Amino acid sequence: MAEITLAEAITQALAYEMQADKNVVVFGEDVATNGGVFRTTLGLLQKFGPDRVLDTPLAEGMIGGMAIGMASQGLKPVAEFQFEGFMYPAFDQIVSHASRMRTRTRGRLTCPVVYRAPWGGGIHAPEHHSESNEAYFAHIPGIRVVIPSSPARAYGLLLAAIRDPDPVVFLEPKRIYRMVKQNVPDTGEALPLDQCFVLREGSDITLVTWGAYTVESLQAAEQLAQEGIQTEVIDLATISPIDSATILESVEKTGRLMIVHEAPKNCGVGAEIAALVAEHALTSLVAPIQRVTGFDTMMPYYKLENFYMPSVARIMATAKQLMEYA
Amino acid sequence: MKTIAEFSIQFHQYLNEEGQIVQALPAFANDHAHLIRLYTSMQRTRLLDAKAVIMQRTGKMGTYPSSLGQEAVATGLGDAMKPEDVFCPYYRDQGAMLERGVTLTEILSYWGGDERGADFQVPREDFPVSVPIATQCLHACGVAYAFKYRKQPRVAVTSLGEGGTSEGAFYEAINLAGMWNLPVVFVINNNQWAISVPRNIQTHAQTIAQKAIAGGIEGVQVDGNDVIAVREIVGRAVEKARSGNGPTVVEAVTYRLSDHTTADDAKRYWNEEVVKTAFAKEPLIRLRRYLTEQGAWNDEKEKQLIDQLSQELDQAIKDYANKASQPAENIMDFTFKELPEALLHQREILLGENHG
To answer: For chain B, which domains are there?
Structure first.
C-alpha cells in the first residue's frame, strides 16, 4: 500500500465516509472542481457528483450557517473554510447556533457538522493565512475542537469527527500537510475523540502539544534524550474537551509539565492545561509549569515568521530549566 | 448606451384598510370558513401577546416581543405552509408558530425562560426562534438544500424584519438560494422599526423586496396587514418553490404597534400621529369589517370567539405556570449527546450544590 500525506489522509477519510454514508456532503470555496486549495478534496467531485461535493458562493458565514440547516435534516455536512483566518465571519453561526442547537431544543434538533480548516503558520503564506486560533473555538461549550498531527491520526480523527453526533471544529496543520508520509490503511476505522495520544514515553518531563508542533516537540525530545532527559510527548489531539486523565497521569509520573503551542500565550489552550494540572496534580509537581508558545503579537508577515514560531532550541532550553528542579 | 436589464417590484393587496375588496379574491378567500380561521388565528395571537405583556409586567414572564399589528403576516405565512415544510422563524413570529402547531404553552415557556418551550411536540423539524438577526436565513437554505438533495417536495420558510435585511446573512442567503435554486421563501416583516431605528434610515433601497434582485431571485411586496394578500402571495411563493421554480423574497409591509419588547419604551422614538394612523390600518379591523359586510360575522360571534380564545389561553397559562421545573442538571445534559469527563465532573458539583 502506498504511503500518503496528511492532506491525502484527509481526502481518504472523506471519500471513505462519503461512500459509507449518503448523508455526508462536502462543500466550501473551491472544493469541487479545484479539489480545494490544498487539494484535500481532490477527486471527490468525480467520485460523488455535484450534489455531494459543492463549490459554494464566497461567504464563510453562509458556509457556517447553511451547514446547520442541513444538519437539522440529518445530513452530515463537512464544511470547509479555505483558511482558518477566514473562519471569523462564521463564528456567529458556530457560537450562537451550531454549539447550542441540542441544548436549545432539548435534543430535538442536533448539529452533527464538521467545520474543517487548514490551520497554523510556518508556510510563508500571506497575512490571515497562518493563524493559530484554536482557543477561540475551545472556549465554546458544545463544540469539539480537534487537531490531527499525522496522516494516520488525520484519517482516524476526521472519520470520528464526521460520525460524531455533535459539531466539531477540525483544524488541519497545514505546515505538515505534506511533511511526512505514512501507510494509512483505508479501513474506515476511526480513532477516539476526547483522548490524547502519547507519542513518546518519558519519565522526566511531560510535554503536551498538538498539531504541527508535535514535530518540533519530538525532535527536541530526541535531542534531550541524548542528554539523558526523558520527555513524554503527548499529542492533545482533541483540544476541547481536554483529556485530563492522560495528562494528569503523566504529570504524576514526571513531576514536570511544559506545554508547547504555536498560538499566543495569553489565554491560549496551554493556560487551561496548566490550570488543570495546578488544580488536580499540584503536589506532584517539582517544578513550575512552563509554556513555550507563540508571542502575544500579531502573526508577523512571513519574513519575520520564524521569530514568532517556537523553536526546537526554545523547547530544549525550557526543558533543561525544568530539570534544574529536583 | 443601452439598457441591459430591467426590474420591477409588484405590490399586492386584496383587502384595503377600509375592508373593501380591491381586486378579485383568490379562490381560498371565497371560503368564509377559511377567512374566519385566519381571523381566529390573528385574534389568538393578539390575545397571547396582550396577556404575555401583562404577565411580564407582573413578574410572571420574561422579556417578550409583542407582535401587535403584525398578526396578518404571521398567520398568513403559517397558513401558506404545509405541515411537512420547515419554518425557521425570527423572534416575533408567535402567530406563525401557532399555525405550525407550536402550542401557546410552549411559546409562553420559551419566553418564560424554559428551553423546553423550543422542544416543539408538533413541528418537530421547525427551528426554534432565532435571536441573532437574520442568521436563520442561512439555516433555511441548509434545510432547503437537504430537501432538494433528497428530492423531497418540501419547502423551507424563514422570516425576518426589515432591519434584518441589512445583515450580511440575509444577502448571503438570497445569493445562495438563487444560485442553487433552493426551495426556500424569505418573508420580511417590514414593520417599519428595528427597535428605535425607522425604516427610512435603515436602507436607501426604495423597497425591501427589490433586494431579492441582487440574489437573482423574485422579490414581491404585499400589504402585510391584509391577511388575504399575505396568504395568497406567500402561498404562491411556497408552491413555486415546491415545484422546483426557485426562491422568493416576500416583503410584507406592516407596522409594529407595540414596543420592540417589554424591555423597550417606544414612546421615546414614536411619532404619536403616525402610530395613530398605523392603528387605523391594522389587520384585524379590516377583515372583521369585510366578514361583517359579507354577513359572515357579527358582534355575538366576536364575543364568542374572544371567550373561547380567552379560555384556551387561560388554560395554557395554567399549564405554563404548573409545568414542573426543569432539574438543575438540564443546564448541561444537552451540551453534547454524551457528556465529556470534564462536564460529568461539573455535573457532580452542580448536583452536590443542589442536593447537599
So the answer is: 10-325 (3.40.50.970), 328-356 (no CATH)
